[in-house]
Amino acid sequence: MKKKDNEKYEKILNAAIEIIKEDGAATLSTTKVAKRVQISQSNIYIYFKNKDDLLKQIYQSEISDYQLRFHDILENSHSTLEKITEYIRALYDISIENPDSMDVIEQIKQIPDSPIDMNDVVGFESNPIVDLIKKGIAENILKDVNPNIYLTMIFNTIRMNAANTKNKQNFSSFDTLLDLFLHGILK
């Protein structure tokens, strides 16, 4: 049995991410990844059980920064509205730092028969952001709308803004987007 090499693991993961960014998640195959890394396809299976496992690990890799920031927000902010604002800020900041990340996440979630559970949007065992939005609704701060609609609206708007930033087109500042979101979600 061959020994796992962390550097090779990262190369495989990064090659797969590049393929997703260039051609889309639906086109990803272990054959393409192996060619990109210049290894035999069988070596991919030393690190990943199959293509679905590769996609899951890419997804997990991409959301790890979000998880850390969201955990800090939930632990450190005070009011529900403050936490929601900081959640939006964290998404915005990550999108500016790594504009491709949100697109990779979304592409993996949207492929037919995605290995990602759609309810596990931020990668926690339960979804604390959904719980936070539900709390905002219960506290009569937010309009009574399905929390997944809020998540989709915020995530996709920020994702599109990141794409505009990357393509050097018109993009909106955090304050502009925050104002838009708060006018749309607050009671």
Quick recap of the structure?
The chain is an all-alpha fold and 187 residues long. It has helices spanning 6-23, 30-37, 41-47, 51-76, 80-97, 99-110, 128-138, 147-166, 174-185.
What report would you give on this structure?
This protein has helices at 6-23, 30-37, 41-47, 51-76, 80-97, 99-110, 128-138, 147-166, 174-185. The protein has 187 residues and is an all-alpha fold. It folds into two domains: 1-48, Arc Repressor Mutant, subunit A, CATH 1.10.10.60; 60-185, Tetracycline Repressor, domain 2 (Orthogonal Bundle), CATH 1.10.357. Helix 5 packs parallel to helix 8. It is elongated, with a radius of gyration of 18 Å. The N and C termini lie far apart (60 Å).
Topology diagram in text:
Blueprint: H1 6-23, H2 30-37, H3 41-47, H4 51-76, H5 80-97, H6 99-110, H7 128-138, H8 147-166, H9 174-185
Helix pairs in contact: 1-2, 1-4, 2-3, 4-5, 4-6, 5-6, 5-7, 5-8, 6-8, 7-8
Record keyword descriptors for this entry.
single chain; 187 residues; Arc Repressor Mutant, subunit A; Tetracycline Repressor, domain 2
CATH topology title of the largest domain? Tetracycline Repressor, domain 2
Structural class, by secondary structure, is: mainly alpha
CATH class of the largest domain: Mainly Alpha
Please mark out the parts with pLDDT under 50 across 5 or more consecutive residues, or reply none.
Answer: 120-124
Residues in helices, as a percent range: over 70%
Average of per-residue pLDDT values: 90
State the domain count.
Answer: 2
**What general form does the structure show?**
elongated
Which band does the percent of strand residues land in?
Answer: under 5%
The radius of gyration computed from the alpha-carbon positions, rounded to a whole number of angstroms, is 18 Å
Most strands sheet:
none
Q: How many individual β-strands?
A: 0
* Alpha plus pi helix count: 9
- List the helices and strands in order: HHHHHHHHH
CATH-defined superfamily of the largest domain: Tetracycline Repressor, domain 2
Question: Termini, distance in Å?
Answer: 60 Å
